[in-house]
């Protein structure tokens, strides 16, 4: 559109349109410079702190306080310290993986049926039901933790995986139901209807037609739910005090490293990188879908 | 699709009639597991918190020197203590911190997020890179981001060395509040940018072309076209951020530490009370926080018209369907 306008403007011979052509070209240049400016500003803003974490984790413990842009001597010392110390960090990563995966699978398993009902079936109070599910996602974590902490200590669940998984469902289920509902609503109903006219049951239509079509939405929801559960902190901090069961985010916050004196910044940064890298890789692979999932609620 | 040929037993109208009777039952069957779990993890804690907030734990020594443990019903005593008791200063401080952190950081995030969205909307090259870059702070666990910023705000850390200051950011005081807000804004402004950008991309280009023809400046276009049209997306984004910021816990906890009065939020206060087995007081704190959250949500949804569930859409559809069916009857 704009290129056409520029061509017709520069094509003119009269001096005012020549001027306009020049100013249009100048504007195009400005837009391009603005684009690069945007990339640089946003890139520095978002990536500089992350870069600093990465660089600091690759320094030797002795020159951790250097402020050079690259390590003077590259070293994986911090990384080996993370796993060799008494902090049990490998176990913590495994715990995080168990808790986040189980939470995600449970939330998806429950969420897909709820989302199917909301997006495909006719029943009363549908919008209030969706509203209730969304409202529950606004529940502050601490309001879940305090009463459940008490309940779980009464039934001996403290220091167990389920003590972290069950409360995590309080944010994972609303997230999953909402995302899946949005995705299912976007899928056409015609195919399922055609299958049902051909004699397929609702269950068959759901399993053989809708589910394969909804697979991208399910994957997106799974990623979002997984990231949220992986990053969860307050529940894991409150429900568990045994280092053998605690998750990586909590382990990091309590990180004292191998040596007891001097705050082990290098090891903290290395541990931070290790916890974040899986997420960053996921983000790079699925960025388009994650953005879709994050924004699906806001653009309707 | 189906391996065995199934004879078409239903005709379309019969499917419809049967479905209206059965769908309600099927729906409740499909929804019940979700609601059962939500009842356990949301409804039970809610009721239990309200109930427990009316009791006070008494653990101490009685006059004979015996350890006494038990709970007594104190009615609204916990709330009274919180609002007017000898320790009420700590509550008001936490309430103040929570409010300041929430409103200041969300205001900054909104401005930065909208700026980023405008920039990303204009940048044609490198959009994929920008999208990935902007997701990085969002994906970093808050606890890790707290550690990361504590490292950068160290006395001899990078922030002081770049700015040439010798500020003790991670100790108590105003500097620590600045540190918390900085870290919070860094992590969450991209989220607002994403939502606003998504809202911007559905604005048709013709609207801008028309405004350009009418000689509207870039600023005027932004103010009179972009901003009103992204308002629904922006409202939802800001509401989510406000509700999220009100329950802020991880960041001040990791960046500065627990029991630091200048960064203690309501969530930290409630957590600390429950850690000291003061379940009654802790429950009362969490109920107060919940009411705060509910009020903000109510203001946004009822007064400002944030359309969170896309329910406006549904209502419109329902109205249209009703009108259509009426037309059909006539």
The main β sheet of chain A shows up as: none
Most extensive contact: A-B, 105 and 113 residues
Distance between the termini of chain B: 41 Å
* Corresponding CATH superfamily of the largest domain in chain A: MetI-like
Strand content of chain A: under 5%
Number of strands of chain B: 2
Shape of chain A: flat
CATH level 1 name of the largest domain in chain A = Mainly Alpha
Specify Rg of chain B, calculated over alpha carbons: 27 Å
Report the principal-axis shape of chain B: globular
Spatial arrangement of strands, main beta sheet of chain B: 1-2
Helix content class of chain A: over 70%
Number of domains of chain B: 1
Taking pLDDT < 50 over at least 5 consecutive residues as the criterion, the unreliable ranges of chain B are 1-15
Question: What amount of the residues of chain B lies in strands?
Answer: under 5%
Q: Characterize the biggest β-sheet of chain B.
A: 2 strands, antiparallel
- Quote the average pLDDT of chain B: 82
What fold name goes in the CATH topology slot of the largest domain in chain A? MetI-like fold
What low-confidence regions of chain A span 5 or more consecutive residues with pLDDT below 50? 1-14
Q: What is the CATH architecture annotation of chain B?
A: Orthogonal Bundle
Please give the CATH class of chain B: Mainly Alpha
Describe, in plain words, how this protein is organized in 3D.
The complex is a heterodimer of chains A (300) and B (330). The model of chain A is unreliable at 1-14 (pLDDT under 50). In chain A, helix 2 (15-57) packs across helix 12 (265-295) and helix 9 (202-231) runs antiparallel to helix 12 (265-295). Chain A has 2 domains: 2-57, no CATH class; 85-295, MetI-like fold. Chain A has helices at 2-11, 15-57, 77-84, 89-120, 126-136, 141-154, 162-186, 190-197, 202-231, 234-239, 248-253, 265-295. Chain A is mostly helical and 300 residues long. Chain B has a single domain (77-315), classed as MetI-like fold, CATH 1.10.3720.10. Chain B is built from 13 helices and 2 strands; from the N terminus they run H-E-E-H-H-H-H-H-H-H-H-H-H-H-H. Chain B has a two-stranded antiparallel ribbon with strand order 1-2. The two termini of chain B are 41 Å apart. Mean pLDDT of chain B is 82; it is low at 1-15. The chains are: A mainly alpha (300), B mainly alpha (330). At the A-B interface, helix 2, helix 4, helix 5, helix 6 and helix 7 of A face helix 1, helix 3, helix 4, helix 5 and helix 7 of B.
């Amino acid at each position: 559109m704009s290129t056409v306008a520029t061509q017709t403007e520069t094509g003119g011979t009269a001096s005012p349109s020549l001027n306009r052509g020049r100013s249009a070209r100048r504007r195009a240049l400005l837009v391009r410079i603005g684009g690069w400016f945007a990339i640089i500003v946003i890139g520095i803003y978002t990536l500089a702190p992350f870069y600093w974490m990465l660089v600091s984790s690759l320094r030797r413990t002795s020159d951790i306080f250097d402020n050079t842009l690259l390590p003077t001597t590259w070293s994986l010392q911090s990384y080996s310290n993370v796993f060799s110390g008494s902090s049990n960090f490998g176990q913590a990563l495994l715990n995080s993986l168990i808790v986040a995966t189980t939470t995600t699978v449970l939330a998806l398993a429950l969420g897909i049926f709820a989302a199917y009902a909301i997006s495909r079936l006719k029943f009363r109070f549908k919008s209030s039901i969706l509203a209730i599910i969304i409202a529950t996602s606004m529940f502050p974590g601490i309001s879940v933790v305090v009463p459940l902490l008490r309940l779980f200590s009464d039934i001996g669940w403290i220091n167990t995986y389920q003590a972290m998984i069950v409360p995590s469902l309080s944010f994972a289920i609303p997230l999953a139901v909402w995302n899946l509902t949005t995705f299912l609503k976007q899928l056409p109903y015609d195919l399922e209807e055609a299958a049902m006219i051909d004699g397929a049951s609702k269950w068959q239509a759901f399993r053989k037609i809708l589910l394969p079509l909804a697979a991208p939405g399910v994957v997106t929801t799974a990623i979002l739910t997984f990231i949220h559960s992986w990053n969860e902190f307050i529940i894991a901090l409150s429900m568990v005090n045994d280092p053998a069961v605690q998750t990586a985010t909590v382990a990091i916050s309590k990180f004292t490293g191998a040596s007891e004196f001097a705050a082990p910044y290098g090891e903290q940064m290395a541990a931070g990188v290790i916890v974040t890298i899986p997420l960053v890789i996921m983000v790079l692979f699925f960025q388009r879908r994650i953005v879709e999932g994050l924004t699906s609620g806001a653009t309707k | 699709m189906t391996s065995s040929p199934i004879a078409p037993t239903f005709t379309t109208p019969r499917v419809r009639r049967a479905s209206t009777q059965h769908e309600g039952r099927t729906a409740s069957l499909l929804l019940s597991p979700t609601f059962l779990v939500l009842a356990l993890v949301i409804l039970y804690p809610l009721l239990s918190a309200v109930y427990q907030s009316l009791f006070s734990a008494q653990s101490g020594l009685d006059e004979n020197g015996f350890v006494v443990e038990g709970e007594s019903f104190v009615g609204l005593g916990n709330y009274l203590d919180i609002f007017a008791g000898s320790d009420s200063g700590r509550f008001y401080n936490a309430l103040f911190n929570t409010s300041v952190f929430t409103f200041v950081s969300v205001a900054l995030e909104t401005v930065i997020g909208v700026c980023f969205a405008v920039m990303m909307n204009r940048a044609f090259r490198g959009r994929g890179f920008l999208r990935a870059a902007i997701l990085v702070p969002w994906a970093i666990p808050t606890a890790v981001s707290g550690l990361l910023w504590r490292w950068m705000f160290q006395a001899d850390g990078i922030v002081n060395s770049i700015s040439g200051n010798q500020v003790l950011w991670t100790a108590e005081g105003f500097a620590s509040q600045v540190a918390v807000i900085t870290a919070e804004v860094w992590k969450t402004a991209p989220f607002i940018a994403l939502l606003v950008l998504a809202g911007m991309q559905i604005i048709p280009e013709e609207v801008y072309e028309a405004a350009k023809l009418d000689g509207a400046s870039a600023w005027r276009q932004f103010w009179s076209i972009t901003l009103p049209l992204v308002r629904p997306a922006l409202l939802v984004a800001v509401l989510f951020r406000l509700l999220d910021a009100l329950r802020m816990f991880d960041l001040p906890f990791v960046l500065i530490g627990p029991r630091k009065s200048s960064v203690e939020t309501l969530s930290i206060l409630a957590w600390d009370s429950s850690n000291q087995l003061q379940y009654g007081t802790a429950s009362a704190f969490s109920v107060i926080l919940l009411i705060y959250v509910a009020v903000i949500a109510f203001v946004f949804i009822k007064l400002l018209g944030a359309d969170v569930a896309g329910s406006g859409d549904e209502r419109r559809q329902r109205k249209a369907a009703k009108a259509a069916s009426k037309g059909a009857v006539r």
